[in-house]
Structure formats: structure tokens, C-alpha cells
Amino acid sequence: MQADHLDGDRLNNDPENLVPSCPGCNMKRSPKPVYRKGRVTVEDAEKIRESGLSLKEIAQEYGISVSYASQLRSGKRKSNGK
């Protein structure tokens, strides 16, 4: 069994928002993540590097994966400059 988030927000772990669910049912209800990897501007990348936000908060704000946020913050990955 897995916990399914009724409102679709995986960060909302309020007990009233969680229901038990089988993995298949949970996947059917889950919205597909939309990452905007190609839409992070040079200015966005600079803001991310200077940001005091957590990687999860950065990922949510810019619509990117946590991994990509980490790479941008560390300078290992550059924006696409768009």
C-alpha cells in the first residue's frame, strides 16, 4: 500500500489529505510532473544560485526537477540561456 494525496500535492502530508492506495491506483491519480528544463533563463540560474530556498522549493517555483535545481545551484549545470 501507498499513501495517495487527495489534492494531488505530494508535499501536503496532512493526514486528512492522505488515503491508502495500491501503487497502480496511486499512479493513475498522480499528475505527471512537468519540468521546464529548457526554460530556465540565465537570470533564473543566477537567482537559484543566490537563493536561500531549499532545492525542493526551487524545483516547485521553477517547475524543474530537484536534481536539475541542485545542478544549477552548484554550477555543474548551466541554463540554456533562453
Give an overview in words.
- It is a single chain.
- By secondary structure, the protein is mainly alpha-helical.
- The chain has 2 domains: 1-32, no CATH class; 37-74, no CATH class.
- It contains 4 helices and 2 strands.
- The protein has helices spanning 23-29, 42-50, 55-62, 66-74, and strands at residues 2-5, 18-21.
- A two-stranded antiparallel sheet has the order 1-2.
- Helix 2 packs across helix 4 (66-74) and helix 3 (55-62) packs across helix 4 (66-74).
- The protein starts with a strand and ends in an 8-residue tail after the last helix.
- The mean pLDDT is 79.
The chain-level mean pLDDT equals 79
The quaternary structure here is single chain
Largest sheet, spatial ordering of strands: 1-2
Would you tell me the structural class of the helices and strands?
mainly alpha
Number of strands: 2
Number of domains: 2
What about the largest sheet?
2 strands, antiparallel
Q: Strand share of the residues?
A: 5-15%
How many helix segments?
4
Radius of gyration: 16 Å
Tell the overall outline.
Answer: elongated
The level of helicity is 40-55%
Residue stretches low in confidence (pLDDT < 50, at least 5 long) are none
The span between the termini is 42 Å
- What string, H for helix and E for strand, traces the elements in order? EEHHHH
Q: What is this entry, summarized?
A:
The protein has 82 residues and is mainly alpha-helical. The protein contains four helices and two strands, in the order ββαααα. Helix 2 crosses helix 4 (66-74) and helix 3 crosses helix 4 (66-74).
